[in-house]
Amino acid sequence: MIGIVQPDSGNITSICDSVARLGLDYRLLPEPQLDGITHLILPGQGRFGAVMRYLHRTGWADALTQWVADGKPLVGICVGLQVLFQSSAEDDDPGLGILPGRVEWVQAPKRPMMGWAPVAFNNIDLPDGDAYFVNSYVVPESEHAVATVTYGASFAAAVARDNVVAFQFHPEKSGAWGQEVLGLCLK
């Protein structure tokens, strides 16, 4: 059973639809009730600080940290990737600190980055393809980057470490390729 952390804002219908198209059962989880859950998806929409305050208020911050420490699979998407890091230039709220580093303002002439860009994976067995991005903040390239994209400057399109994989782009909105990438992460 796939658990989808249900944020208090944002539309997660496309993530639910994508998981259902994969033929996988899922449960929306406004709070960390993890019995029977094998994989977690941490979506995110909005401001880094607002998402972090929600995660703390609902008990998700501690639950996610423990989930990862226990070696269970976690998939982060968009701001769900960003909050895995220690901090963000967007807000003063600290992140979960599951991955080292700081989220920065995208260095590009036009913000937000919105649209399609090619993504090539390395050091992880996922297919290359065209991804859909909507973001103003990014994770700079780091040792955990398994895909990069260039929009003004290069940044991490995806990161991975042990049982965690996370995408700055939206696999659930990236067509058949994104569906395949998400499916490979959830099996």
From TrEMBL:
Pathway: Amino-acid biosynthesis; L-histidine biosynthesis; L-histidine from 5-phospho-alpha-D-ribose 1-diphosphate: step 5/9. InterPro entries: Class_I_gatase-like (IPR029062), GATASE (IPR017926), Imidazole-glycPsynth_HisH (IPR010139). It catalyses: L-glutamine + H2O = L-glutamate + NH4(+); 5-[(5-phospho-1-deoxy-D-ribulos-1-ylimino)methylamino]-1-(5-phospho-beta-D-ribosyl)imidazole-4-carboxamide + L-glutamine = D-erythro-1-(imidazol-4-yl)glycerol 3-phosphate + 5-amino-1-(5-phospho-beta-D-ribosyl)imidazole-4-carboxamide + L-glutamate + H(+). The keyword Ligase does not apply. Keywords: Amino-acid biosynthesis, Glutamine amidotransferase, Histidine biosynthesis, Hydrolase, Lyase. Pfam families: GATase. The keyword Chloroplast does not apply. One of its GO terms (biological process) is L-histidine biosynthetic process. It comes from the Bacteria. Gene3D superfamilies: 3.40.50.880. The active site is at 78 (nucleophile), 170, 172. This is Imidazole glycerol phosphate synthase subunit HisH. It comes from Acanthopleuribacter pedis.
